[in-house]
């Protein structure tokens, strides 16, 4: 929690997330100015003690720190292009690509503003609790200057000076989330054909996911060393098990596309002579551009 609760903050954008950000600052005691394109969305924040500003430019004058949380970067530019930004610190929590974040950082610098890009890894009800992980990238001194205030929103982690890092971590996290969920759905579909319901499989799936998650630090070391000795299992052993998964899926009449994708990647690595290496040698499949 911030010890600097008298520091004013401004929030541009009062969608579901912006309103949650405003509530967290207000609960922590920060004088909070808010602005939204559709003014009526400021009513709830105003009832909680926020000061609604008539224009985005007025909100920016409330203090040195402005949080931006809009639909996309097009909206960010639409709102901020006409405003005076010299001397401001902008913390942009709008989702977008790393390229947009880097471009916006350069744009902000040209306008005389300090700029941090951020990615919110949480849903609105978690904002203001330790459950809300918020990632920031951009100049470290600018992060440190506002770290205590940003800590009001959740855990604040600075990833590095490259402003694109927060967006990259954001999408990397999404890749992890959807991959785990899709793998779980594959197993759920398979077991469903034997009358096992999803709830019965879920605890087992949870256990497997936790075990596999435990392998990541060691596997990451292999990737960083570019050396993949088969300490527990060789890729060709995994590839045989992938064939079982494909055959089971086909025999059970469930979708086999996902296991076929696993197998196609493994087969290319086997053809390149990596059969005796360990699974993370497949990083080469992911660093090679390929489209379906
Ligand atoms: N909600 C969530 O769970 C996720 C969690 C992860 C991060 N996201 C990102 O946060 C950004 C905002 O999301 P949101 O949920 O608040 O989104 P909405 O409720 O749809 O509100 C959008 C606000 O943006 C304003 N807006 C849109 N276009 C413009 C524009 N051209 N000019 C000015 N304002 C604009 C919109 O205003 P209005 O429609 O009420 O007038 C809302 O305030 C987003 O990047 C998520 O990916 C949230």
Q: What this model shows, in words?
A:
The chain has 292 residues and is α/β, with parallel strands linked by helices. It has two domains: 153 residues, Rossmann fold, CATH 3.40.50; 94 residues, N-(1-d-carboxylethyl)-l-norvaline Dehydrogenase, domain 2 (Orthogonal Bundle). The protein is 51% helix and 12% strand. It has eleven helices and eight strands. The protein has an eight-stranded mixed beta sheet with strand order 3-2-1-4-5-6-7-8, sandwiched between helices. Ligand FVH binds next to helix 1 and helix 4.
Tag the structure with descriptive keywords.
single chain; 292 residues; alpha/beta; Rossmann fold; N-(1-d-carboxylethyl)-l-norvaline Dehydrogenase, domain 2; 2 domains; 8-stranded mixed beta sheet; elongated; binds ligand FVH
Whole-number total of structural domains: 2
Mean pLDDT: 97
Ligand inventory reads: ligand FVH
Radius of gyration, in angstroms, nearest whole number? 24 Å
How far is the N terminus from the C terminus?
47 Å
Assign the CATH class of the largest domain.
Answer: Alpha Beta
Question: How helical, in percent, are the residues?
Answer: 40-55%
H-E order: EHEHEHEHEHEEHEHHHHH
**What is the annotated CATH architecture of the largest domain?**
3-Layer(aba) Sandwich
Strand order of the largest sheet: 3-2-1-4-5-6-7-8
Net shape: elongated
Biggest sheet features: 8 strands, mixed
How does the helix and strand content classify structurally? alpha/beta
Low-confidence region ranges: none
């Amino acid at each position: 929690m911030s010890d600097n609760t008298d520091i004013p903050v401004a929030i541009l954008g009062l969608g579901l997330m912006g309103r949650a950000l405003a509530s967290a600052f207000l609960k922590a005691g920060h004088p909070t100015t808010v602005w939204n394109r559709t003014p009526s969305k400021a009513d709830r924040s105003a009832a909680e003690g926020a000061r609604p500003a008539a224009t985005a430019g007025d909100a920016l004058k409330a203090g040195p720190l402005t949080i931006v949380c809009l639909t996309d970067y097009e909206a960010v530019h639409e709102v901020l292009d006409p405003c005076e930004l010299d001397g401001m610190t902008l913390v942009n929590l709008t989702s977008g690509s790393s390229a947009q974040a880097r471009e916006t950082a350069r744009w902000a610098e040209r306008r005389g503003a300090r700029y941090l890009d951020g990615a919110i890894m949480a849903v609105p009800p978690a904002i203001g609790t330790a459950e809300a992980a918020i990632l920031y990238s951009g100049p470290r001194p600018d992060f440190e200057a506002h770290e205590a205030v940003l800590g009001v929103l959740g855990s604040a982690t600075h990833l590095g000076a490259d402003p694109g890092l927060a967006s990259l971590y954001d999408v990397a996290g999404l890749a992890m989330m959807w991959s785990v969920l899709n793998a779980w759905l594959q197993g759920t579909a398979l077991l469903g054909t034997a009358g096992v319901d999803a709830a019965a499989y879920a605890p087992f799936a949870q256990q497997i996911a936790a075990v596999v998650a435990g392998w990541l630090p060691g596997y990451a070391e292999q990737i960083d060393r570019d050396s993949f000795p088969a300490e527990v299992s060789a890729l060709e052993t995994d590839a045989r098990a992938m064939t079982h998964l494909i055959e089971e899926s086909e025999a059970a009449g469930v979708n086999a596309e996902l296991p076929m994708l696993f197998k196609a990647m493994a087969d290319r690595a086997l053809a390149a002579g990596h059969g005796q290496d360990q699974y993370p040698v497949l990083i080469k499949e992911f660093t090679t551009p390929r489209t379906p």
